[in-house]
Amino acid sequence: xGDDKKVKGLDAGRRKSLGVIGAGAxxxxxxxxxxxxxxxxxxxxxxxxxxxxxxxxxxxxxGKAHISGFQLAVEEINAAGGVLGRKLxxxxxxxxxxxxxxxxxxxxxxxxxxxxxxxxTFSSAERNAAGPVVTQSNKILLxxxxxxxxxxxxxxxxxxxNIFMFGPxxxxxxxxxxxxxxxxxxxxxxxxxxxxxxxxxTNKVTKQKLAELGGSVVGEVYIPFxxxxxxxxxxxxxxxxxxIIFHSLTGSDTVNFRRQxxxxxxNKDFTLWTVDDEEVVTSGLGPAVSEGTYVxxxxxxxxxxxxxxxxxxxxxxxxxxxxxxxxxxxxxxxxAHMAALAMxxxxxxxxxxxxxxxxGIRFDKAPQGPVTMRGDDNQIVVPSYLMKVRKDWTSVTDxxxxxxxxxxxxxxxxxxxxxx
Length: 420
What we know:
Elements: H1 6-25, H2 27-42, E1 47-53, H3 60-79, E2 88-94, H4 99-112, E3 117-120, H5 124-137, E4 141-143, E5 163-165, H6 170-173, H7 175-185, E6 188-194, H8 197-212, E7 216-223, H9 231-240, E8 244-248, H10 251-263, E9 271-274, H11 279-285, H12 287-290, E10 294-297, H13 306-319, H14 327-346, H15 351-358, E11 362-363, E12 371-374, E13 379-389, E14 400-409
Parallel strand pairs: 1-2, 1-3, 3-4, 4-5, 6-7, 6-8, 8-9, 9-10
Antiparallel strand pairs: 10-13, 11-12, 12-13, 13-14
Helix pairs in contact: 1-2, 3-14, 4-5, 14-15
């Protein structure tokens, strides 16, 4: 294990006003004016948040958990009275797992729906597509997904003062566990990932630490989306002399590769460490394909934290006893609550004030334990867990065995012009 009135005042004001009206103009006038005053006090327009989720397309498997975390948080915030006397309202946009659709949806939500801010997008490609939109419109984007970290060459998708990162980056998700993995399983890595920014930059950052610890990369390959067959890649892995397969494939490519990897018997010869296969994907793979795999994230449904037990009770009450949530769903949950805290702190939803208030905001009730938004680079500070998938698991309750964890991991500073 690792390191460890307002309503009362409003009522009083309303009574005083009604008393003055009654004394000065009679009961009949008061009876006409009072309903209008009450409507004005409680009918303030909602704070509108545009949520972009992959509800259809290649990453639909992630979409349900992605949006459900935000929905639960908004329900909780509204049940507690909303923010600044206003309810939060979600306006949904389906990304269809396509960056060009993200651009369309972000523009629609901002220009037509008049949302106050955005939350979501899933992949780095989607976030990068939204970057120019939130820059030009000066709107905040709350981004939830584990990602590659911030490199200035990918601006405005990262290194953007209007984008706040609620998921871990490689120096939080991967670096804390590399020494253990290398001592336990060897120093030669074969890297396989999908062909876009997240795997490529994640591997670039991972290689820095690997070299520092005396390891090496004996193979590196990036796979186009929706690749059905992996015979040639499996041959390359077999002949590489690798100890650890470092895996950052996504979506259906994860399923195709992992099934063929196990069918070839290679799971007996190599250790596989994935930075993608959380509860939703692992459930889809099944025990025979996933057992023995290492997985690292900031959150798992089985972590032992009082906040998590309470969160899961509420989550299952809303979405059903078998509903799944993952690191991204929890990041969406945290993002909604932290945005609400920032609105209260700022006294406004105006972008510049909200941006300033988000910096340094802390959320003590996060499911994985207290988390903080770092001010200089808009990066969340979260725990880090390394898990191993159990043999013959039957559900998420017995899927993962904790190997090690760190209570709070400060990532390296973003590779941007700081502060953002």
